[in-house]
Each structure stands twice: as structure tokens, then as C-alpha cells.
Amino acid sequence: MTNQVNSPAGQRPGPDEPAATGAADGTAAANGTDGTGAPRVEGPAPGKEVRRLDRVIIRFAGDSGDGMQLTGDRFTSETASFGNDLSTLPNFPAEIRAPAGTLPGVSSFQLHFADHDILTPGDAPNVLVAMNPAALKANIGDVPRGAEIIVNTDEFTKRAMAKVGYDVSPLQDGSLDGYRVHEVPLTTLTVEALKEFDVGRKDAGRSKNMFALGLLSWMYNRPTEQTEHFLRTKFAKKPQVAQANIAAYRAGWNFGETTEDFAVSYEVAPASSAFPPGTYRNISGNLALAYGLIAASHQSGLPLFLGSYPITPASDVLHELSRHKNFGVRTFQAEDEIAGIGAALGAAFGGALGVTTTSGPGVALKSETIGLAVSLELPLLIVDIQRGGPSTGLPTKTEQADLLQAMYGRNGEAPVPIVAPRTPADCFTAALEAARIALTYRTPVFLLSDGYLANGSEPWRIPETDELPDLSVQFAQVPNHRLDDGTETFWPYKRDPHSLARPWAVPGTPGLEHRIGGIEKQDGSGNISYDPANHDLMVRTRQAKVDGVDVPDIEADDPGGRAKTLVLGWGSTYGPVTAAVRRLRRDGQHIAQAHLRHLNPFPSNLGAVLRRYERVIVPEMNLGQLATLIRAEYLVDAHSYTQVNGMPFKAEQLATALKEASLDD
Predict the structure, then answer these.
(1) Which of 103, 374, 392, 402 has an alpha carbon within 20 to 30 A of 480's alpha carbon?
(2) Can you say how many angstroms the Cα of residue 118 is from the centroid of all Cα atoms in its chain?
(3) Which helix (H) or strand (E) holds 659?
(4) Helix, strand, or coil (residue 358)
(5) Rounded to whole angstroms, how far apart are CA atoms 108 and 315?
């Protein structure tokens, strides 16, 4: 047994992942047909070697019109159905339609899949599929020597190469000599495969992404039935288009089996030991979040109302929720961000689970209404899918730079609880947790996801309904206060002594009429009040309510308890940080890790945990916002390690930085 694997890049498994044996055995499945011409995994093809790998990282790259996201998504679905653990990183251009063949227009999709538990989309691809010169130039810097590169030679014309600064073809000047390059005329082969269909060359060439998908599916023994079913369903009203895409897909698969250029295919076994028993599906962060909101609505017994204005990368939540009227979901696409949150807050006043979704620029516009929700003390979920800023910034790139905005971005003292998911699948659980806090404490709650989580995907175990929390709500039904003259009345700000939550009275309930608005309320009665002492009491009470939110203690992962350095993360840094910590531990380093889900209030034991370590390092995709809060709250000299390039951390990069920081005197 050995830790060496036969990978396309000829490399050992990265030290962030558990090592697995990878000796070539020639017994992995290859492909045949099912009698209808559809390829499937059956047995080894004659003359073709099959090697077993423990993990692979593939990146598809091309123009934004080349269908790279669809190609990556379909390969991901095939991989999920096969049972591998996986993590993805879609990377979109910021322009709606950048000029074809240019560097700003390159779209890519990276998939890391393995036969064991993995945490990130991977640092560097073992395989790069480059559909044109721009895709090659934009991504070659990430590809390690010895990796495989599949290029569409049809696109390597003088004009296309000149657009991205290639004076000489990189396929001929020796610059790719350190890689295993497969020159494949993808467009020509696709057009040839579709010649029996009544489509022009240009339209036929658009299916080259399906040819590439078929080829990669052959290389890695992926199941094919789901993709063919997907194509038939997607183009059900255009059966000829469906058949053309299926033909291109099969042609790519058959090309891999018959060409001499691809003498080896690979097998990555299912990650059966990585998953607890259950039913799994592949899920993106935005989809998981939408499902979490629906589950929260079901568990609370409240109708779900989403008031939203489309904005990247949050729009998919609106799109998904609009499909679920059968669960009592109402979606309202408002004319602007302010109207969206205003409608959501109005729905909350009317007894619904009010939600608004947005990204950083939209949060700025919603800030006044968030302050109103704080004053009204009504449950409201503000879902912020963070992206690069400031202003319009980087609409399609990820960042964690809205933490201080969520914490303080309102006039006056307007405290709001903050919850942050750590993985795409965790967005489901985080949505339930945010709803629990909002409904229990009658307060708006921020849910801070980001573009990396929103668009990335991973396997998710579908929970049983009896595993979901009980979020049921009791509305006020009768008067709750007796005046000095014995009259029974309703006081909208008479609080629960434990949670400090005020009663929630649905408008129209007889005898529970009450005044609302943004002007300060009198404690208890809710009447307008300008009394200084009352304002001081209400401000401190609202803060005490948020400070008293029940959140679980944080746990430090510190095997053996010998670490002197603690790495503290939040949100989507969980995967890269955990992978980096694994690498350091495998190299003999003693290092502890803790991860925050609740950012306001912090867990009550956080200060004690921080003080156990000589050094605290906080990696963030901003300029040190959590570190600033930690220093201010606990007087701990937290050290920042930051990145704001629109991309998630790489595990190797973090491991190096953490090692250097932990050894720094």
C-alpha cells in the first residue's frame, strides 16, 4: 500500500485531504452501450488502461456563451449521483455579455471530487478544458506542471490569439511543453457528429460543450443517464435540439473511447465512508437557503413572504422561491430594494415570515427600513449574499466585507443578530437558525452568505422532518394589561421576561389594536414618547434583547490540547481554513481551529476560548472586520490574514500563511 496516486497531473494527493491508495489496477469500469446507443459504464475497453485515483480537480473554461456553467453543472450532477464527495467553484464574468474571445469574457467552472471527505473546490486543476485562447491564457497560471490540458484547436486562429496577446500559438511555441496537452478540434468534431441533423454549422458548433462533457464523462467513468434525461427535459418542446445535444454528448464519449490520444481513463470510487447514512443530493448554497426558508415557514406554521429586488448573486433565491406557491410561498419582485424590504416588513406585521434578499449595495438602500424593523420589533430576515464592493464593485465575485455594515450600518443604536453559514449545504441550517432567532426574539436578523457559498455546491443529506426544529409561534389573542381603573387593554411592548420579546398581534384581532411607526415608543403601551428616560430604557432594552439571544457555545478543535495558535474563522472561510489546518497537522504542527456561526451576539464562552491561546489568527475575505470586532470586544491581539481579490482562499496559501504566523515571534 502506498500514498502515491496515478493522477493526470502526476502528483500526490494534496496534504489537505486524507491520503488514499491509488495504485493502477486496470479493473475500473469502462464504457459500452445500452443497446440504444447511449453510453454507460460497464467494463474495460480493449487497449485502454484504467487508473484509480483518490481525487481529481477539473476546470472547464471558455466564453460566457460557451455553456461552461451548464457543462460543469452536468458533470457535477453525474458525479453526485455516482456518490463522490465534491465541491464546486463557478466563476462568472462580471459583464452580462463581454466581447467573445476576450479575457474579461472568460467563464469557468471548477469541480473537485473524491473518494473521501473534501472541503474545498481545490487549489489547482489537474485537468483544464480550454475552449479558446482566452480561456487558456486566463487559467494557465493556476495549472500545475504535468496537468492535462484539453484545447479546442478550432478556436486557435490568428485573430483569436491576437485578441489576448498571443503573437505565436502557445500550442506551437513550446510554452506548454510541461503539460500533457490534448489538441482536439471540438467544434469540427461536433459539427461532423451533427451532420445528419437539420442545423447549420454555427448552431451545431454551439453543442461543442456537450461534446466536451461526453469526453470528460468517458475519461472519469461518470454515469450518463441523468445528463441525457436532463437534455430531453430541458428541450422537451424542441426535440430536435435535444437529440442534437445528446448526439454531441455521445460523440464526445465515443471519441474518448476510440481515439489513441486518450489511452487512459480514470476511476474515482464513491466516497461511501465520508457520508452518514441518508438520502443525498447535490445542492448549491442559494438553493439550500431557499429550501431552508421554506422549511422555516413550514415549521413555524407561517406563510413565507419574500419581498426582493433582483441583484447578483442573490437573485437565484427569488427565482427558486417563486416556484413554490404550493408551499404557501409568496414572492414579490419589487421596483427597487426599498420597496422590497418595505413589503417584507409589512408582511411581518401581518403575521407572515417576512424575508428580503439582496447583496451589499441593496443592504445600503434597505438600512432605514431595517432600523424601522428594529424599532417595531418584528421578525424579519435580511439575507445578504455578499459580493465584492464598494458600490457596484465586483458583482459576480465573492467577498466577506459586509460584516461591519450588518453590525452597525444604521442610524442610531439599532442592534441586529447576525448568522453566517459555513458551506453551501449549511445555508439550509443557517436559514432555520436565523428564523428561530427572528421569531423567538421579535427582531430582524441578518443572514450573511456570499457568492462563493451561493454558487458553489456540495452533497447535502436531506433531513427528516422530525429532525427540524419546532419554530411554532403564538400570536397575541387577548388583552395583556390591566389599567389602574381595571380596564383590560393590549400593550404591544409588554415583554416576555426571559426573551424580552414583545407580543406579536396580527392586525384585525379584536381588542388588540395598537400604534406602529418609527418614532420612539413608550415602554409597555407603545404610545409615542419623547421622554429622555424612556428612550434610554428602550435603547438599552433592545440591546439587551439581542445580547441575550441564546446561541450555542463555540468549540475549539484542538486535538491533544497542545496548540498555542488558534485560527478563528467565520462564514465561507470554513472549508479553506479547515483544509489548511489539516495540512499543518499532518506536517506535525499543533494548531487549533474554531469557527463562528453567530457574529452578533458572539457565543458567551468566546472570550474564554480566545484567552487560552497565545496567538489568534483571523483569516477573512475583507480587510480584517471580524478581527476588529474581536480586538474591541475581548482586548485580544487578533492577527488578520486578509484577501480581497474576489476569490476564495486556497488551502496551500492559507497553510503557508498560518505556519509563518504561528512561528512568528
Answers:
(1) 374
(2) 15
(3) helix 651-663
(4) strand
(5) 20
Residue owning grid cell 471540438 = 186
The C-alpha atoms of residue 389 and residue 249 are separated, in whole angstroms, by: 39
Taking CA atoms, 606 is separated from 43, 448, 568, 598, in Å, by: 55, 20, 10, 11
Q: Helices (H) and strands (E) in the chain — how many of each?
A: 20, 25
The string of pLDDT tens digits covering residues 572-601 is 999 999 999 999 999 999 999 999 999 999
The 10s digit of each residue's pLDDT in 100-126 is 899 999 999 999 999 999 999 999 999
E strands, 201-284, where?
264-268, 280-284
Cross-strand pairs, 134:
none
Residue 609 corresponds to which cell in the numbers above? 476560548
Return the HEC string of 483-524: CCCCCEECCCECCCCCCCCCCCCCCCCCCCCCCCCCCCECCE
SS3 readout for 171-224: CCCCCCCCCEEEEECHHHHHHHHCCCCCCCHHHHHCCHHHHHHHHHHHHCCCCC
- Specify whether the CB–CB gap between 638 and 630 falls below 8 A: yes
* Interatomic CA distance for residues 497 and 518, integer angstroms: 24
Q: Who's near 442: CB < 8 A, 6+ residues apart?
A: 377, 378, 379, 501, 502, 504
Q: 534 near 522, Cβ under 8 Å?
A: yes
Residue 27 has pLDDT above 50, yes or no: no
The residues, any chain, with a CB within 8 Å of residue 121's CB and separated by 6 or more, are 57, 87, 88, 89, 110, 111, 112, 456, 648
Number of Cβ within 10 Å of residue 557's Cβ equals: 15
Other CB atoms within a 10 A radius of the CB of residue 509 amount to 15
Asked if 256 contacts 238 with a C-beta cutoff of 8 angstroms, the reply is no
The residues near 296 (Cβ < 8 Å, ≥ 6 apart) are: 304, 353, 431, 432, 435, 436, 471
- In the three-class reduction of DSSP (H, G, I as helix; E, B as strand; rest coil), residue 70 is classed as helix
Angle of helix 574-586 versus helix 651-663 axis, rounded to 10:
60
In three state form, how does the secondary structure of 313-339 look? CCHHHHHHHCCCHHHCEEEEECCCHHH
- Residue 203: pLDDT band (50, 70, 90) is confident
Among candidates 429, 53, 67, 80, which has minimal Cα distance to 220? Answer: 53
Q: State the cell numbers at 87.
A: 465541491
Helix/strand/coil for 438 = helix
β-partners of residue 110 are 59, 89
User: What percent of the chain clears pLDDT 70, i.e. is strictly above it?
Assistant: 92
